[in-house]
Amino acid sequence: MPESRSTTFDFLLPAGGEMGRRIREFDWTQTPLGPPDGWPAALKTALNMMLCARFPMFLAWGDALIYFYNDAFIDILAVRHPDALGRRFSELAPEAWDTVSVLVGQTLAGQPAFHKDLPFRLRRKGYEETAWFTVSYSPVCDDQHRIAGVLGICVETTQRIQEDKERQTELTWLRDMFEQAPVPIIVLMGPDHRYEISNAANQELLGNRPVVGLPVRHALPEAEEQGFTAILDEVYRTGRPFIARDMPIHYRRPDGTLALAYMNVIYQPIRSRDGEIIGIFGIAGDTTQAVTATRGLKAGEQRLRTLVDAVPQMVWSAAPDGTNRFFNKQWYDFTGLPEGSLNGWEAVHPDDRAANTVHWKRCVATGEPYEVKNRLRHRSGEYRWTLVRALPVRDEDGRIVE
Q: Is the link from the previous residue into 36 a cis peptide, with omega within 30 of 0?
């Protein structure tokens, strides 16, 4: 008997693995298929194709849809392996048959079935659970070209679906938290930088344009023109954060006109559990008012310097401790000191410095005007008598600050 069974399965290729061995050892006379000697050539060909495949595959054959599967399918069956071999397809997982029977019926009618991420209720680990699969069912014909079976490819996607659901839960929590933030916050996903989150502050900045779900280059053409997409590409490619202070950003108002804002910007890569970069987190702080004010101060200082440089007298300022803060052009022209040098005492005659210091401290303490006569070294090297006058500058609390 063993010798007969061995020759019966000569049609099976040696690459069939564990399931090829089990098919050889199985007593097929106890099934509607009968002994393998009577199996049609089409069934034998389909079996070899299935057993040698590295994708999870099954074959259900005949009116009873007797079940075969390959090594890659063992993990999907879990505790149903190896008892699933040689059974009727409908008996394998009664809890999932309502879903499976529709696909099988469609396939046996000559219409291949394909579904992505199809949920099934399965009992594989002692309890019923939902598992997701991408499935492809194809009809298989017998030697008379009649449909006699179903060849199925099943790839389990449960882990990815669950991770996606977890990510969506996390994103919902983050979205609720970010929505309350007073600064613009965005979450961009994928290499094309699709908006996943754009909080209320960012939407206000963008004039409430609908951007969620769109790549940055489509949602904000002006960002593409300013090189932001290239910056995002670099963060996504290298994993290095991008940080910029007072970055000029041109954005389009709802009326179509361009406006200018200044932002402190941070783009931080988002990584999956496996360390793969899957997106970018962005946060911005509006510094437009501060930049404008600073530039206004600088412009005012420049105007003041221009005016002060235009007067014929030497003009200076100093801190309460006597540290010089400013000299105008006439000072440098007179003393010959290098422009930018703030050591005013260097030009005062050594014999006059002590008296000047005493008088300076008294004026700072009392607030009275500062007036002294002392000798300043001219650029020629000789000392010349000069009259020096100064008035205190007070802050809003009345303290002398200059």
A: no
- 3-state SS, residue 8: helix
For residue 297, the model assigns a pLDDT of 62
Q: How far apart are CA 12 and CA 129, in angstroms?
A: 35
State in words which class domain 162-290 has. Answer: alpha beta
Beta carbons of 401 and 320 less than 8 angstroms apart: yes
User: What six digits make up the tokens of 3?
Assistant: 């010798």
Question: What is the CB neighbour count within 10 angstroms for residue 253?
Answer: 10
Phi-psi region of 233 (alpha: psi -120 to 50; beta: other; left: phi over 0): alpha
Question: What is the topology classification, in CATH, of domain 2-156?
Answer: Beta-Lactamase (3.30.450)
> What are the extents of the domains in the chain?
2-156, 162-290, 308-390
What pLDDT score was predicted for residue 225? 80
Class of residue 10 by CB neighbours under 10 A (exposed 0-12, middle 13-18, buried 19+): exposed
DSSP string, 281-299: EEEEEE-HHHHHHHHHHHH
pLDDT of 70 higher than 50: yes
Confirm or reject CATH 3.30.360.10 for domain 308-390, answering yes or no: no
Mean pLDDT check: name the lowest of 123-127, 306-310, 390-394: 306-310
Instruction: Report the predicted TM-score, pTM, of the whole model to 2 decimal places.
Output: 0.49
Using a pLDDT cut of 90, give the percent of the chain over it. 31
| Pairing state between β 242-252 and 258-271 | antiparallel
Answer for the pair 150, 136: CB distance below 8 angstroms, yes or no. no
Residue with tokens 């990584």: 271
